Amino acid sequence: MDLEHKNFFCCSSSLEGIIPSGQGNLMTHQEDPPAKNLFLQDLSKLEGGMSSDGDFSPRALPLSKDVSQLPTQLHVSQKGHQLEGSVRVWSDYLRVHLHPRSIFMIHQYNDDGESSQLEAFGQGESLLHDPTYLEELEDRLHFYVEECDYLQGFQILCDLNNGFSGVGAKVTELLHDEYSGRGILTWGLTPVIDNVGVSWKDFYRLMNTVLGIVHLSSHSSLFCPLSLNGSLGLKPEAPVTLPYVHYDASLNYHSSAILATALDTLSAPYRVHSSQFSMVQLADAFNSSGRKVVAAGAAVPFPMAYGQSLPDALCSYQLAVPWTPLSSCGEQKDSCFAQSVVLRGIGKENHISNLPPGSQPKSALHVCETGEEVLGSYLHAQCPGTFSTSYLLQDPCKVLAPYPQFFSALLNKQGFLLDKLPSCATAVESIPVLTALQSSPTLHSALYSLYKELHQVDVRRWASFFSAGIELYDFQEALHELRTLSQCYKTSSELDESDSD
Fold this sequence. Notes:
This protein is α/β, with parallel strands linked by helices and 501 residues long. Helices cover 30% and strands 13% of the residues. It contains 13 helices and twelve strands. The strands form four sheets. Strands 7-6-12-8-9 form a five-stranded mixed beta sheet, sandwiched between helices. Strands 3-4-5 form a three-stranded parallel beta sheet. Helix 6 (200-219) links the parallel strand 4 (183-189) and strand 5. Helix 3 (121-127) packs across helix 5 (164-178), helix 5 (164-178) packs parallel to helix 6 and helix 11 (442-455) packs antiparallel against helix 13 (472-487). The longest helix is centred in the middle third of the chain and has 20 residues, at 200-219.
């Protein structure tokens, strides 16, 4: 598998500010750079030694430096960094440096604290109504577009639950207008939400989510919610469980690792150089009849015993699919309208059953001659009549540091299941992963339930939400559009049924 990856690099600097005092004098305040955890310290040493100001820039080592004391790339990757207690934001475990022009800072809002947060859709929209922000965004966008040899389209990751849904809505609108014909695949992210009672923050979150789904799907080729929440309503259902991953739902460090693993595999069809599918073609396969919202699912890792054949592994899932829903839409109960399935990390020697001559095959999967046929036959049996594309990629998903080591002790280094617990714990270095992107009837109930929760309340009670820039009439219209969108996912047996408000 040859996947397309882009790496950008940047330098970092300390934060400084000059603030006028009450007497007219100037006082200079300098803030120390954030303390680095052990993982980032090792990366800095690997790049050529860490200066006193924490600069990440590579530099030549002094001749007197004892190179043997520096960590090697292998050491940094395999060292058991326990980052659960030292991670606050995503940059605390970022391995790739970002190019300065790929970073767009919003200074008027805080990431944490109780004030000056970007908490309403209208606030996010208003940011890009400001010519200064809009021009800077367009300038950075054009810089990268001009560097592309072949521009398939754009992949957008955007929070749904806060004001960044408004930022994402304006960005997708800009891309849709300026790069017509290019693919725009948008992933709407929601962190795990504590169900500890309903407050005004929950209504803000739900209103942001509804506006985000409607606007982002409208200007995207495809839109997919991504979350470990069981649902996205006012009282979210418990987070999903993954059989061989013991994650802490309260840690974004854990939940983001799972979603990133799923996204890396879900997006493989248009990133593999040998693939015949582009972003636009993948989207066209899904969004007939107005179905521009899709649901994701993943098996992280794909449960397969060490040395087991793919037909044997899939035969264990005749009654239910092996993946866990990751779009807060519930379990798939019926056949879907269209799907794209990717399985990675299974060696070619295990693709087929290799039955001894004269033996009776256990199933239709055991007579397939290639792994692609095995996966395709399984999907056809699970969803007959569904348009399905499937991809079988040999390269596994690497889970070296800083990836959290939250896997079951029953997994070996390659992420395959063992018959019994090993005598000593072994760090998992790679895993097989199965993902599915589906246009599914489950989206009807998921989208309609969000509409119904807000339709039943008087949203004018939250005047501060609308004072941020969104008009009440526009919100009511978006709510109606969400209801219309949900109708696109009704099956033929449901068409005669009317949803009551």
